Every structure is written in C-alpha cells, then in structure tokens.
Amino acid sequence: MLLSFDPDDVRAAERPLLAAGVPLMDRAAFALAVHAGHVLRAVRGRVGGAHVVLLVGAGNNGGDALHAGARLARRGARVTALLAAPQVHAGGLAALTAAHGRTLRVGADGPDGDAPAGDGRAADASGGGRGGAVADLLASADVVLDGLLGIGARGGGVRGAGGELVDALARVRAAGGGPVVVAVDVPSGIGVADGTAAGAVVRADLTVTFGAAKPGLLLPPAAEAAGAVETVDIGLTLPARPAVARLETGDAADLWPVPGGSAQKYSRGVLGVVAGSGAYPGAAVLSVSGALGAGVGMVRYVGGAGPQVLAAHPEVVVGEGRVQAWVLGSGVAPDDETQRDRVRAALAHAVDHGEPAVADAGALDLLPERVPAHVVLTPHAGELATLLRARGDDVARADVEAAPLAHARRAHDLTGATVLLKGAVTVVVGPHGAVYAQGDAPAWLATAGAGDVLGGVLGAVLAGRSADAVADPTLPAALAALAALVHGRAAHAANPGGPVAASAVAAAVPGVVRALVGA
Ligand SMILES: NC(=O)C1=CN([C@@H]2O[C@H](COP(=O)(O)OP(=O)(O)OC[C@H]3O[C@@H](n4cnc5c(N)ncnc54)[C@H](OP(=O)(O)O)[C@@H]3O)[C@@H](O)[C@H]2O)[C@@H](O)CC1
Ligand SMILES: Nc1ncnc2c1ncn2[C@@H]1O[C@H](COP(=O)(O)OP(=O)(O)O)[C@@H](O)[C@H]1O
Ligand SMILES: [K+]
C-alpha cells in the first residue's frame, strides 16, 4: 500500500530528528542528486557536461535543489540556479557557489539594483528581452530541478517570480522537447494536502519525495502533475494512519473474498442487481457481467431487462430472493417508476438488514437522508454535484473536478455513505478518515458502460465479504478501492495501450483477479 501523509504530520516527524541534529536536508539532497543523475545518464549518457537548471524558491525546498545542484556540479554538470526569491536558502546557495554553479536572480522580486547572488546577473522570466534568456536557458537544459515550493506551499499555484518561471517552463515544454522536469518533494504549486492544482503548477516527469508521499501526489487533479513518484526514506517515523492511501498489487490478496475449500454458492455471497430499464437494458447486462467476472456466488436480477440479462448470462436467477449485497441504479431511467420503486425498497432493506449496497446512477437521488457506511455511492463528478445540490450545496461539476477529495468528503459527511468518486483517479472516502486514491486505469476506460461494470465488480466483493463490511465501517472504502484497482487493471488487460469497450473490461476481470490473488 502506498501511504501519504499531510504536511503537518511530516513536519512533526521531522522535528525530533532535526532537534537531534540529523542532517535531513543532506539526506534529501543526496537522494535527489542520485535520481537526477539517473535521469541525466538516461538522456545524455553521463552527468559530466550535462546542463542542469534549478528553480529555487524562498524555503527549504529551494535548499534541497541548491544542495543537489552542488552535488551535480561537483560531478561535472553545468548547473544554473534561477533564484525566484530575494532570500534563498543560505547554506544551499553557498554550497552551489563553492561548486562553481551559476546563479541568476529572476523577476520583480529581484530588481536589477538588488544585490545579486553568484555571478551577479539578473533576469526577468516573464518573456521577451532577458525573459528570452530564461526561456533559452530552460530550453537548453537537460534536467530542471523544481525547488520553488514544497510542503510549505499555501496552494493556489506559485505566485510572483516563481510563477513566471513556471509559466516560462510550460511554454518551453509546449513548444516541444524541453528538459526532463524533476520535482523536489512535490510539483510546485499543487495543493499538497488536498490535491488541487489551480494557478501556476509545475508539470513534472518525476517527483522525488522525502520521508513519505504527500496526498497531492496521489489525489486528482494534482497527481497528474507529479509524473512518476519516487519516495526517499530519510528516516522519519510517521503516524499509523495515512491521510490518503493507494492499494497496490500486494494488497489485493488480503482483501479479496477468495473461496475456501468448503465454500458453496450461498456462503460465497448472492448479489441482488436492480439495474437497467426499458431505455437502458445494457446497463443491467454490464453490471451483471462485472459481478460474474469478479466471481460472485450467484446473481439475482430484478427488473425489466431479464430477457437480455439471461441471453447474455444464463447463470443468472431472475426474480427476488435473499441476497448478501446489492447493486442498485445503473441504467435505471428517471421515468421508470416501477424500477425506481424496486431500488427504493432494496435501499431500505440494505439499511435495515445490514446488507452492503452499491448505489449508482439512478439510485443516487433515491438515497435516504442518512445511510450507514456499508452503502457505497459510485457517482462521477456530474452526479456528485447533483447529489450535493439536492442537499443544499451550490456546486457545479467543475467544482467537483477541481477538488474531488473535498467534495467526496462532503458527500460522505452529509449522507454517512462511503463515497467512490469516479474519474481518471478514483477517490474513495469512508468513515474514520479512510481515504483512497486509485490511479490504475488507462484513459481508454472513459467509455459508456464502464461504470456499470465497476458497480458489478464492487457488488461482488461486497457480497463476498458482506458481514465483514457491515461490522467494520472502514472496510467498504477499502473494498471500493480494491474494485477500482481491479477495474482499472482489467481495462489495461483487455487491450494494453488501446481502446476498450465496457464488455471487454468485464471479460478481462477474471484474469486480473487470478493474477492478483492466485497462488
Ligand atoms: N525541515 C527540514 O529540514 C527538511 C525539509 N525538506 C524540504 O523542505 C521543504 C519545506 O520547506 P519550507 O518549510 O521551507 O517550505 P517551502 O515549501 O520550501 O516554501 C516556503 C516558502 O514559500 C512561500 N510560499 C508559500 N506558498 C507560496 C505560493 N503559493 N507562492 C509563492 N510562495 C509561496 C512561503 O512564503 P510565506 O507563506 O511564508 O509568505 C515561504 O517563503 C520540503 O518540502 C522539503 O523539500 C527536506 O530537505 C527534508 C528536511
Ligand atoms: N480519464 C480517465 N482515465 C481513466 N479512467 C477514467 C477516466 N475517466 C473516467 N474513467 C473511469 O471510467 C469509468 C466511467 O464510468 P461512468 O462515468 O460511470 O460511465 P458510465 O455511466 O457510462 O458507465 C469510471 O470507472 C471512471 O473512473
Ligand atoms: K517543488
């Protein structure tokens, strides 16, 4: 499991080590220089003679970049530091200067008359004139180390001279080619704790993060700016509970309901599916496909799409009966009152009798005021905005997309449900601070019906672990993250690197599960 921690927890973990004189910045800068060296060898064959540009802000994040730059300069790299603040980390600056690195003060914060650092040159990053010199420098770099802002960032993008550097770097990259960008600790400008990415934000190819990952490296939309993430152990002891977790391959076997030798279909879990309608019978078929692919003991289908479901899956039992979990609402049209009544009844049963339930699409507006955490909502951003508006919040889809964690958390707080918010990175929020962010899927998965398959996979897992999911209110969040992981990997497996239809994703689920839980 990949665990991330809020800046406050990281600072608290650093404090005793710093007080004891442990050289944390040296450790961080050493690891950063090693990773930058790997990148330089990959793009130029060697560190000696390579051109490295440092973007340096006012804090310790800039100090990391300067110290790493000094190490690279000692190995023969040509290193230029662009100083975006009047005062930068003194020890780092001294180290770079001693290693014969060049420094250049940029932007309005460093007027021409200001006592400049290093070789005494000043430049304006905003474009034209000396701004052109900054652009040329960035364009000619092999690697840029982004040390503008780390965990001291207050969010909303990088402001001031650093923001101009971020924009200049973006222009260089948009023109094609450009340097490999390595973010120091986090891409500068992201919301480190909440994953927002408004304003001037560095787009990195690689982020070298210290002590532990930070939530913004896992959460959308900021996760996209981080590129690959390398975590460096600098000796911090962090709390037991992370801010945001991501399930990885090794976690699936512990969570998946693998049948024991004495299993029979009822003990493995029966899933009730109330999905599909005259307008959308395919949603019922896809939902059932996901559940069967995930290996549920049995599916009972309830609704008008019985003939289509049976034609695709003769193993399904059509009609009501006892179940251990539900999938509700996929493809249930707003004007199909008969099917909506069935969804209402199933939701009430799930709440009253302790049966886990997935509430998707057409079930979201039928949710009671409060539900237990074993009810899992699976909205996309538009549906989450609608749900929040129905409960009095003034929220548009774009607001949810800009801050998915905050809005998923709000929906959890308002309803009590576990909330799985679909997207390029799927965010899950449950009770007691359980938060997951899964980025397992290729963009090809953004295709009609894919969400119905996800609901079926999740329903199967909840049916298989029904009693556990009711007894431990944080488990539905872990199982929802697990379903997202399997679903995303199934999209890869169905056609690596290429397009997938939702039915092909469902067909790939059994193989993915075998690979994850097989002996
Ligand atoms: N502690 C240690 O020994 C270790 C720390 N380590 C490293 O230190 C990093 C944390 O360093 P840090 O605390 O100095 O904060 P950092 O992110 O560099 O910047 C703060 C400055 O930025 C400014 N600022 C804020 N928001 C802004 C914005 N939007 N736009 C523009 N400016 C903004 C802010 O201004 P202020 O808010 O005070 O006005 C302040 O001047 C950490 O990520 C890791 O890399 C490692 O070496 C391991 C050991
Ligand atoms: N850019 C993307 N990259 C990867 N996966 C995505 C992306 N956009 C959406 N998805 C995933 O695709 C699925 C789409 O589901 P949904 O929006 O409910 O579609 P439908 O209602 O047609 O089934 C979700 O699992 C979502 O997480
Ligand atoms: K940074």
Automatic annotation (TrEMBL):
Function: Catalyzes the epimerization of the S- and R-forms of NAD(P)HX, a damaged form of NAD(P)H that is a result of enzymatic or heat-dependent hydration. This is a prerequisite for the S-specific NAD(P)H-hydrate dehydratase to allow the repair of both epimers of NAD(P)HX.
Cofactor(s) named in the record: K(+); Mg(2+)
InterPro entries: CARKD (IPR000631), Nnr (IPR030677), Ribokinase-like (IPR029056), YjeF_N_dom (IPR004443), YjeF_N_dom_sf (IPR036652)
Binding site for K(+): N61, D146, S188
Chain sites annotated for binding (6S)-NADPHX: N60, N61, G62, G63, D64, D185, A283, G331, H380, D452
Molecular-function GO term, any one: metal ion binding
Family: In the C-terminal section; belongs to the NnrD/CARKD family. Belongs to the NnrE/AIBP family.
Name recorded for this polypeptide: Bifunctional NAD(P)H-hydrate repair enzyme
One GO BP annotation of this record: nicotinamide nucleotide metabolic process
Organism per entry: Cellulomonas shaoxiangyii
Lineage summary: Bacteria, Bacillati, Actinomycetota, Actinomycetes, Micrococcales
Pfam families given in the database record: Carb_kinase, YjeF_N
Binding positions (AMP): K422, G423, A424, V425, T426, G451
Residue ranges constituting the YjeF C-terminal domain according to the UniProt record: 248-516
Keyword annotations of the record: ATP-binding, Isomerase, Lyase, Metal-binding, Multifunctional enzyme, NAD, NADP, Nucleotide-binding, Potassium
Catalytic activity: (6R)-NADHX = (6S)-NADHX; (6S)-NADPHX + ADP = AMP + phosphate + NADPH + H(+); (6S)-NADHX + ADP = AMP + phosphate + NADH + H(+); (6R)-NADPHX = (6S)-NADPHX
